[in-house]
Amino acid sequence: MNSPPRRQLPDHSQPAEPTAGTLAEGAPGPGRGRGFEAGGGAAAPDRSGRRRRRPRRLTRDLLRAVFGSPGEVAYELLAPLPGFVCGAALLLILASGLFASVILVGLVLLIGVPFAARGTGAMHRALLRGLLGERIQPPPRRSRSPRGLLGRARAALIDADGWRSAAFTIAFLPVGALLVLVLATIRLYGLVTLTYPIWWWLVRSDGGHRGLGLGFGGVHLDNWVAALLTGLAGLLPMVLSTWCTRGLLDLAVRPMARALLGPGRQDARVHVLEDTRALAVQDAAATLRRIERDLHDGAQARMVAVAMTLARARERLARLPGAEPELVSGRELVDTALAESRTAIGELRELIRGIHPPALDDGLDVALETLAARAGIPATAETDLPVRPPEAIESIAYFCAAELLTNAARHSGATAVRIGAHVDAAPDGRVLRLTVRDDGHGGAHLRRRGAARGAGGTGLSGLAERVSTVDGRLLIVSPDGGPTTITVELPFPRRDDAEPDVLTEAR
Questions:
Q1: For the segment 113-132, what is each residue's pLDDT rounded down to a tens digit?
Q2: In degrees rounded to 5, what are phi and psi of residue 210?
Q3: What residues pair up with 473 in beta bridges, in sequence order?
């Protein structure tokens, strides 16, 4: 008998050439991407991982359905007590203030309600974020209180965000009571029933019966079968308590928190408009920067090339002998074109500097020192910039400093100017403060409304308009006789909220 032919094992030392019956490398096929291993050759479906994950997922979902998530249970345990204390205290203050509103004491109590409610709202937001994963943006900080006792009292009484937080704190009282009721009755009874087999094994009553005495109609659950069935029956109240807790959280707590603890509709709209304006300012700065580069690298370079060509043409025409009228006219035309091209190059360079000064490429501190060195009067620059402001903020600060230096040199009669720039921490980010102080005769002011264009203060009004595009302020202290101190405040956000604030740590 002839032996069957021996199978020859494939040689894996060399990569196999793709044939008509195989897939080439990188070709799409059923064995790539889903259910197959990434290696070459005939890959088998990787279903073992799915088979291992499926029981874990089912077990986790079953435990969450019976006992609830750990965050929900923790919120049910931890939130009601501080909610009761803060809500009862706030309700007492509000009732006392309304009752005594005819006298000054009642007004003081009413002023304290929104102030205290902001703190309780922050506590509720922290509990919701840490235990339930509900991230609610805090309302914006209160603006600076106006001067005067009556103005501050009125600002506190019309604090809409504070009153909304007070409404949530008071409305949480009945919801917290329901959470405690579910915890103390249904969940506790379900937990005791669920663990009854353990108590049946450990506890023995005086009558000789086992268990905790959960007898019904004289029937004692004192055998292991009844104890096991009792433990299984404890799943029902546990599931019921979980559903009740989840329903209270999803139907009452979360919607009320989103509606009352976060920013109002007007605040949200203002926030959207501020973000849109910030993006518009950044886009405008980037567009101007791109135009400056195009002019510098394109139009200016071509104008320089034209001027160099005209200069070579003038040299060649100057070497030609003769004094014919056509030759003399050609020389004059070339001279005129060369002069015009040089003038155009100068104007183009001034335009480029007006769009984006080259000194800002190295930072605002270098740019201010350059301005101080080129000023028409003695000037010094002192800067403290631990972080670099955004490009739009730097550009506004530079042009403000240049305009203020020009005003001091032309109109103030000053003999010395001092420029200062530093970055401070602010509640919503950081603020760049640019200060220009001169020893002139003073009298600087903004142009009043309705004044003619030629009236004094028009330059400062333009600066105020430029600064207002980023929510900045222009502060002028210029008494008659001097000195004059003009401060430009330019706020800007932190580039990364997660990074530590070096300014706050330094303070």
A1: 888 888 899 999 999 999 99
A2: -90, 165
A3: 489
